[in-house]
Amino acid sequence: MSRVLVTGATGALGRVVVRQALAQGCDVVGVSRRGGPVAGRVEAERVDVRDRDAVQRVLTGARPDLVVHTAYAQDDWATTADGSAHVALGARAAGARLVHVSSDVVFSGARVTYSERDLPDPVSPYGAAKAAAETAVAAIDPSAVIARTSLVMGSRDSPMERRVHALLDGTATGELFTDDIRCPVHVADLASALLELGRADASGVRHVAGPDAVSRFEIGELVAARDGLPPAGLRPGSRRASGVPGPLDVRLDCAWTQGQLRTVLRGARTFLSDPEALL
User: Fold this and answer.
1) Can you point out the beta strands (E) in the chain?
2) What is the pLDDT of residues 220-257, one digit of tens each?
3) How far, rounded to the nearest angstrom, does the alpha carbon of residue 150 sit from its chain's CA centroid?
């Protein structure tokens, strides 16, 4: 695995994948919708995954051994679903391995705990787009890895941590739901696992999340304590009562995948309690 192409390379996860691939001695190519500096000497090329021809051109030119597809947009079906199909088509044409990053939002939460064998049953537009992306990737390239994960944290760039800080400093208002439960993963652990799966003889769905099931409100409390901030600005609420679409309690069973990985997927209560773990 000498050349790695990372989509969404300027995002919170993409940046860490790029840094880790560079540290492993890989030649790294980054692409993102806005382009710009990423890490080391890597400058992300401006490529919109909604543009099938542009995706094909960059993959044909880069000839990567591995593509790690992290790009998404929660409010844009074309980016999340169609864009993933374009990346899968381009990776297959270029002869590259593909690791596609998916999400626990493909599930409704009706069963609470889900293994890799469980079929998606999304209840939100974003979940439906992610499920459609999985279907497209699996159909285009059965050898691809579909890595379902949960809330990605441990970085100052992570959306959840930015949200908590905005609530704490008063630049945002709102609630953190006590009934919205996920299994957060540290961004460095996830990046390491994605690259490890890319090197391995793996295919199909893999669950890559942390072992701790925590609510968004508990996450807020953990972030506040880690960063030495008073939690007074955090207000608990109920997702069920709010009517905000999306699953409630979704827990990815990662035991099978974790058993195949050298990378240890830490729990949120561990990494959010350690200031040294913040990237």
Assistant:
1) 3-7, 27-32, 36-39, 42-46, 66-69, 97-103, 113-114, 145-149, 152-153, 176-177, 181-182, 185-186, 204-207, 214-215, 236-237, 251-252
2) 999 999 999 999 989 999 999 999 889 999 999 999 99
3) 7
Residue located via tokens 């597809």: 69
**What are the residue ranges in the chain where pLDDT is below 70?**
1
Query: Which helix or strand (DSSP H or E) is residue 161 part of?
Result: helix 159-169
Backbone φ and ψ for 182, nearest 5 degrees, come out as -135, 180
> 36 is written with which tokens?
């710009």
Arch. (CATH architecture) of 3-277: 3-Layer(aba) Sandwich (3.40)
Measure CA of the first residue to CA of the last residue in the chain; give whole Å. Answer: 25
What are the pLDDT digits (tens) for 58-68?
Answer: 999 999 999 99
Q: What's the burial of 91, exposed, middle or buried (CB within 10 Å: 0-12/13-18/19+)?
A: buried
pTM: 0.96
Domain boundaries, the chain: 3-277
- Whole-number pLDDT of residue 156: 84
* Residues 83, 66 contacting (CB under 8 angstroms): no
